[in-house]
């Protein structure tokens, strides 16, 4: 969505409130409900999304009026950011808006915990991402491989970044893609495994783009993978640890999260698949010796995953139940027990070429 | 240190043990003690280092023999890594070495917590960094600015990386520096402030290299800043939050840490200075409204810093005592309360040009 459309959405919000006032009505903002009762797993599209239920914030409702005022302040400041071509972190937004209301002892905001949820409200009310409102989250993640990214006038050949790679920023809306020679995107959970594959020149030999999420993926990383998949039609394959935490990171990349269900369509990549680590790998590759016993916290998490609608596919139920039965987890780096090169020269090429992946 | 010298140090260790055996003596390894009693703050060089006390690990001492065996296994595997031009994460090292000793039920290692401290032992015994043994830690941090880095045959112009920047890897020993136009290095604690300064083109307008540590700096990031300072003679200025946590991140970058005192000389940058945030800034720039009250945990941490020999300079004692007196902390991003551009257009240029910095 371009800046002009975002500004026009913000203007509409303001005009609607002015109209309420002109009509002598209490100003109101309507937005989708974000509670668990309105979060739906769309099985056809493989994505978490918000349902039809809405709620209304009214200026003249005493319980709402402070939040109403704060929401409008945020909308107004975002309009300024977008108009001026500036971006700000959600913390900077808070600091920019925090002040004492003249003639009172009332502060607009006492704490960032007041402004953060209202940003989400504004995103859902307007149907825009916070990045489109020019608000930044923390950034994390690295990219390397056969693609040239145009960023603010610079053309970055991501296959010519040595072993270092490109630091993925929090906002990637401005990225333009050129000279895409890669055939797929490999998303890797741990920085250490990304380093291993870079050292083995996996991205060169296998003609792909590699992205390290370094744990739970940051929004910029999710959005970038989404764009690579949807705009360039590149298949996306993820490679995580074989434990409930790795699988959940995968599911958020793929289908979105409950907390941010309104954003799954812009951040999620429902078409992606998981190459490993799986419980089946343990037998296939003889890795019993390098598994680790499940802790209670792991077991609880597996049982939670088994409840989620998006883990109801038979392949996933089989893997998760096998994990409980074996009582072990396995890390990506455990493949080093075979040899350092094993993951790059045998494990990944074999599984990917044969399509041995989880949905 | 080049690979050949590291291999020769590893060979010497092995030959010494062979000699012990030939002489009919129990094989021993001597290494500096790393306990608090042997950690010294070198005031002249402004750096934490290990003293002269050593300890000995003997194969024939039952309490030592398992560790002795493990140390030798690690040394031998590192020699293999270096000889083959491979690097490995400390987790991969563990997985590569974990096996059952033939004819017994004894595993070489049960857990990575057994191998990690022995890596440090080997570093201190040989006087080499783990990166020189081709072992990787986690990577974190981003660099942007007027320098070209040669990495594995690629020449990366770090002023042409849009708003993204270079992802700093865990090992930077192989980096070669070219075409350095920057006049200094600005090291920034938070990713959000780094983003702000990138957006304001601070590095272009002020002709510097900017490095984001993103919290406590990773080893690769510390080593890179060390190299930029010592090899290129670039002044280094750090910019952290105004709280004991930010100041400690600074002190580790500058003087090293107690846990890794043996590495300060290779990772630390004793010549660096801190531009802010300081308690004095609060009065100078009228930031009272955007400070935050100290929590008990902050107060305890300040009192700990006040005990450390490397915080005994009068400027630091003044700042830390002022923090206790005011009872507040202040974040880098609080400068956004003036304007988004304030930090880049006024705060940093003014303080740096006037040299208003802490030692």
Protein described:
The structure is a homodimer of 359-residue chains. Chain A has 359 residues and is of the alpha/beta class. Chain A has 2 domains: 134 residues, Winged helix-like DNA-binding domain superfamily/Winged helix DNA-binding domain (Arc Repressor Mutant, subunit A, Orthogonal Bundle), CATH 1.10.10; 213 residues, Dna Topoisomerase Vi A Subunit, Chain: A, domain 2 (3-Layer(aba) Sandwich). Helices cover 43% and strands 17% of the residues of chain A. In chain A, the strands form 6 sheets. The first copy, chain A, has a 6-stranded mixed beta sheet with strand order 10-7-13-12-14-15, with helices on both faces. In chain A, a hairpin with a 4-residue loop joins strand 2 and strand 3. In chain A, helix 2 packs across helix 4. The longest helix of chain A has 23 residues. Chain A is globular and about 75 Å long. Chain A starts with a helix and ends in a 5-residue tail after the last helix. The model of chain A has no long low-confidence stretch (mean pLDDT 95). Chains A and B meet through strand 5, helix 3, strand 8, strand 9 and strand 10 of A and strand 5, helix 3, strand 8, strand 9 and strand 10 of B.
């Amino acid at each position: 969505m371009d800046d002009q459309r975002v500004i026009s959405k913000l203007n509409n919000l303001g005009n609607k409130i002015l109209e309420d006032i002109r009509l002598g009505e209490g100003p109101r903002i309507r937005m989708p409900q974000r509670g668990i009762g309105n979060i739906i797993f769309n099985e056809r599209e493989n994505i978490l999304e918000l349902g039809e239920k809405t709620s209304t914030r009214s200026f003249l409702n005493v319980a709402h009026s402070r939040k109403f005022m704060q929401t409008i302040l945020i909308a107004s400041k975002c309009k300024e950011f977008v108009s001026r071509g500036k971006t700000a972190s959600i913390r900077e937004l808070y600091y920019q808006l925090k002040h004492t209301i003249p003639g009172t002892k009332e502060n607009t905001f006492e704490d960032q915990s007041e402004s953060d949820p209202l940003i989400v409200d504004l995103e859902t009310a307007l149907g825009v991402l916070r990045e489109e409102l020019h608000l930044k989250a923390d950034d994390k993640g690295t990219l390397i491989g056969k693609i040239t990214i145009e960023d603010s006038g610079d053309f970055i050949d991501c296959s010519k970044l040595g072993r270092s790679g490109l630091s993925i920023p929090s906002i990637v809306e401005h990225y333009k893609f050129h000279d895409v020679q890669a055939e797929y995107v490999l998303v890797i959970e741990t920085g250490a495994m990304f380093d291993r594959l870079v050292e083995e020149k996996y991205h060169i030999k296998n003609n792909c783009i590699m992205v390290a999420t370094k744990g739970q993926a940051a929004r910029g990383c999710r959005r970038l993978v989404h764009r690579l998949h949807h705009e360039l039609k590149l298949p996306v394959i993820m490679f995580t640890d074989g434990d409930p935490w790795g699988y959940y990171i995968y599911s958020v990349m793929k289908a979105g999260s409950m907390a941010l269900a309104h954003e799954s369509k812009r951040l999620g990549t429902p078409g992606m698949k998981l190459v490993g680590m799986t419980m089946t790998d343990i037998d296939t590759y003889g890795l019993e010796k390098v598994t680790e016993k499940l802790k209670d916290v792991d077991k609880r998490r597996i049982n939670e995953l088994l409840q989620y609608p998006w883990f109801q596919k038979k392949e996933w139920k089989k893997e998760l139940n096998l994990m409980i039965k074996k009582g072990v987890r396995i890390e990506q780096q455990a493949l080093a027990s075979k040899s350092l090169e094993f993951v790059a020269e045998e494990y990944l090429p074999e599984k990917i070429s044969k399509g041995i992946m989880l949905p």
